[in-house]
Write a structure and sequence with these properties.
It is found in: Cell membrane. With about 90 residues, the protein is an alpha+beta fold. The protein contains one helix and five strands. The chain starts with a helix and ends in a 7-residue tail after the last strand.
């Protein structure tokens, strides 16, 4: 019984860390993954490096082509997109 009493504080510390640190981080990761998956041509984005540009082409599942200025295009990995500034509206069919 005494041994169980010694583990209760450890269990409580783990539970508090779960709800304050781990769970919010997992939620934030899921939101970022959904944002990155929804990127399409015309969206204005900010990369983790601070570059602001417009998505010119969605190459594949892991790569985008971003136009930083007229005629200046760079290839970036999707996961390096930090924020979407403006979403484009889907084209009417």
């Amino acid at each position: 019984m005494e041994a169980l009493g010694q583990f209760i504080p450890l269990i409580l510390i783990f539970a508090i860390m779960w709800f304050l640190l781990i769970r919010p981080q997992q939620k934030k990761m899921k939101e970022h993954q959904a944002m990155v998956a929804a990127l399409r041509r015309g969206d204005q984005v900010i990369t983790q490096g601070g570059l602001i540009g417009k998505v010119a082409k969605v190459k594949d599942d892991s790569e985008l082509e971003i136009e930083l200025a007229e005629g200046v295009k760079v290839r970036v990995v999707r996961n390096t997109i930090a924020q979407v500034l403006n979403k484009t509206e889907p084209a009417d069919s």
